[in-house]
Amino acid sequence: MSLNDGSIMPKQCIETLAQFNDRSCLRRYNSAGECPDIVNAICERDGVKPGNVFIENGSGPVLKMAFHMLFEDYIRSSWTRMASHLVGRPGVTMVIVSPTYEKVVNGAIRGGVGIHPIVLDEANGFQLDLKKLEAAIQKPCIVYLPNPNNPTGNLLVTRDEIIDLVERYPKNTFWVDEAYVQYMDPKIHQPVSDLVPKYDNLFVSRSFSFAYGLAGIHVGYLIAPESFIERMEKKSTPYRVGKLQESVVVTALRNADEHLRDVRALCAQEQARIGEALDQIDGITWYPSSANFILCKWPDTNTTTKFLADMLAAGVRLRPFAAPEMANHFRITLGLPEDTDQLLEALQVVTHYRGSEVLPPPSQQAVSEDAAAVGV
Ligand SMILES: Cc1ncc(COP(=O)(O)O)c(C=O)c1O
After folding, report:
1. Element (H or E) spanning 174, and its range?
2. Is 4 in the pocket of ligand 1 (CB under 6 A)?
3. 212 within ligand 1 shell (Cβ under 6 A)
4. Closest CA to 274 of 302, 295, 250
5. Parent domain of 85
6. Which of 60, 202, 208, 370 is 20 to 30 A from 5 in CA distance terms?
């Protein structure tokens, strides 16, 4: 329960997978180089044009490639930025929230980008202070906003706030990472992909790894201005997403409404069960989430480290954080009811053992319980 991959795919995908049942069924590349079937299904659902969509093997690779291009564009568009870059100073700034999805931040730092973090207010449920954000974006920059955010699980900006920002700061690029947005009921939050054709400073990335439960075929996409997508296609190879992925993803999109309703209900149910258990453990704080994971913390780092080691020994891996300011936090991914059962069992054992030396591995526990049963 340490990775955020989703738990179930649309049931119709099982029928699609069953069609791949003879030795020649995968002999052909997908329907055409740029996956028009997926692109058309996305356009229908997200209200964009085919020229706005770039498909890849996951949204992680999309983030990596497109950010690199954006950084280059920013640096090349000004002599002062180019000069800064050439003498080893950041030629471009990326405004992020903290904490957020670490891979994007680490990639930007490796690419020589200046990072301006806006610290989220933990006492206030990790809300983003828009005044602080606005103060940071007065000069042209790239703003990365996962919405909902990973690892805090909360929505950072509403649709209206995004519209306001892109309109008032036309020289800045706003990248809204909607990897987890399908976990939210559209009646509560409307995603923003349909706004991309209207604003050329808005980029939106999406993934099938989470609410669609398809991390195992790893498909993601970017919705961005047509001229940018055209350049991305030119830099990439055709046929990068295979026929099996294409068929399953198209089925998932065609059955999205029913599936996403089920997934939201499942997540709400498992979050309630886990939340109830966490509430009974003295010292753990947890934050309600709009995604498929819950951020939690102990009051101090030593307790967190021991707790995570004990949980691992009890058969459940949870996600720690490397950043010093997050060292007493950990993240639990919501899964199937049976995953929650296992988590709750481990929590019971570990919190019972808390304060003792080392928890025996589950195999030894089973042996000693068996041994106790026969009186050895
Ligand atoms: C916010 C966010 N965006 C993007 C990704 C990348 O996901 P994928 O490459 O599976 O589409 C992740 C993965 O954890 C994530 O948390």
Report:
1. strand 173-177
2. yes
3. no
4. 295
5. 12-255
6. 202
Ligand 1 contacts CB of residue 157 (under 6 A) = no
- Distance from residue 56's CA to the centre of ligand 1 (Å): 12
Do residues 86 and 229 both lie within one domain? yes
User: Is 4 inside a domain boundary?
Assistant: no
Query: Judging by DSSP bridges, how do beta strands 93-98 and 142-146 pair with one another?
Result: parallel
Is residue 182 located within the same domain as residue 235?
yes
Same domain (yes/no): 108, 147: yes
Q: Which tokens in the block code for residue 15?
A: 């029928």
CA distances from 140 to 80, 81, 103, 272, 361 (A): 13, 11, 23, 42, 54
Q: Of the residues 204, 232, 255, which one is the last residue of a structural domain?
A: 255
> Which of 65, 98, 101, 154 for mutating ligand 1's site (highest number of atoms within 8 Å of CB)?
101
- Pick from 15-29, 267-281, 361-375: least confident: 361-375
Nearest residue (CA) to ligand 1, atom 3: 179
Pocket probe for ligand 1: among 103, 147, 154, 207, the residue whose CB has the most ligand atoms within 8 Å is 207
Q: What is the pTM of this model?
A: 0.91
Of 205, 220, 255, at which residue does a domain stop? Answer: 255
DSSP state of 127: B
Q: Domain count of the chain?
A: 2
Rounded Cα distance between 371 and 376, Å, is 5
How does pLDDT run across 14-43, given as a tens digit for each residue? 999 999 999 999 998 876 667 888 999 999
For residue 154, tell me if it sits in a domain. yes
**CATH number of the domain residue 288 falls in:** 3.90.1150.10
